[in-house]
Input
Amino acid sequence: MPEIAFIKPTLPRGGALVLLVPEGVALTGLAADADAATSGAIARGIEAAAFTGRKAQTTTLYAPGAGLARVVLVGLGKPADVTPEALEAAGGTAWPAVSSATDVTIAADTLTPAEAARIAMGLTLRAWRFDKYRTTQKPEDKPKAEKIAIATSGVPAAKSAWAPLRAVADGVFLSRELVAEPPNVLHPVEMAERCKALTKLGVEVEILGPKEMKKLGFGALLGVAMGSEIEARMVVMRWHGTKKKGTPPVCFVGKGVTFDTGGISIKPAGGMEDMKWDMAGAGCVIGLMAALAGRKAKVDAVGLVGLVENMPSGTAQRPGDVVTSASGQTIEVLNTDAEGRLVLADVLWYAQKQFAPKYIVDLATLTGAIIVALGHEHAGLFSNNDELAQKLTAAGLVTGEAVWRMPLGEAYDKGLKSDIADMKNIGGGRAGGSITAAQFIQRFIEPGTPWAHLDIAGTAWSSKDAPTIPKGATAYGVRLLDRLVADHDEDA
Ligand code: BES
Ligand code: MN
Ligand code: ZN
Output
């Protein structure tokens, strides 16, 4: 990961220089200085490459003069569209164009210091890599840029704007790493172990095993874990950041199925490897807690994750089994592949009883049906509370982690009727599969608790690079929920 250093605006004598250029605006500041120092080579390059400053447009000019090895031009789009999010995207877009250079300077002298920090954020988010399991990588395949200097007229202000962003980036990285880890390494016991790292940030971490969960009556979660050689865990992470006494905490719950074979209702072989990221909801909650604690958010927050492996074996749960959840409600398990809702049922119940939270948001890679409905662009949002839904929608728009609200309703709930128990774990058919799943979860939410469920099956993993997200684990939800908390739940 390159290190960020904010420096006063001076023209570098060598290396790579990144110029951020809005559409239809003449070169000013360091960009104009660079053009003068290279006797107009930059302006000529812009002309020759037909570079207009269009959003995400990039052009590299090599050895333009004045000792510079390269000048990278990144388009910012129309001045009116230059939002903080667009600046992050520009920072991210710059990274692949400079990662092979040794000395890199980004000219942010025409931006505010806070905007310069957003450039740093975008670049940092894009530069993350997961190389842990590569042993034969050649040096030329690795990025060379170790230090990125960002030139700004307000160095101290940029530094203080960067500190909380850097903490959020660290939360994103923790989340991406957990999701990227292979399932033989990151099983429930190991994942719980990794949560302990948060104690360094001041988070209280409590780990519960099968014995404790049995005592709590977690029959739904433990039923899923029955087929695995590896024990289930629930981890409770608490961050105390508010000075106000007696305020209820905000609460986040994540599905952490470290591998989902489907159990006895086994999945087909093709693409089953994708099910290593069936713990992305939990990965998000852990990364979010790291982000909140890392930036010392003025809020009391609780993160809970239910960690299990869904395996077929001689001890696995069978289709037809009836389990009793912590809430006392019984569930007929007709499909062992509808396991995420069983895990959430117990953890959500516990969260409400234990913490009486201000609200609960759960995240889960819950249904393939949400991918059919929304593709990979939005997570499905289900909520019993319009205000919470509205706040999440707004946070989605500014972080780029978009949500789209889906319906809930009694007619959908009817599909969960069981012949012999309080409910079954699947609906009548394939129709509205994400909604039936959300209805199931809602049966474990008390009417007075504001609750939102995010089905992130389509957004947890990406098969292509985005400006600030390299392909792979996206850490979807960390920035969204950090923003929700920052905008609405912190002390003034
Ligand atoms: N983990 C899967 C959902 C999933 C599918 C996530 C594709 C990411 C990509 C979940 O546990 C599951 O298997 N859901 C079933 C539910 C069905 C059995 C009612 C599904 O979506 O097919
Ligand atoms: Mn499943
Ligand atoms: Zn699953």
Remarks:
- DSSP finds 15 helices and 19 strands in the chain.
- The mean pLDDT is 97.
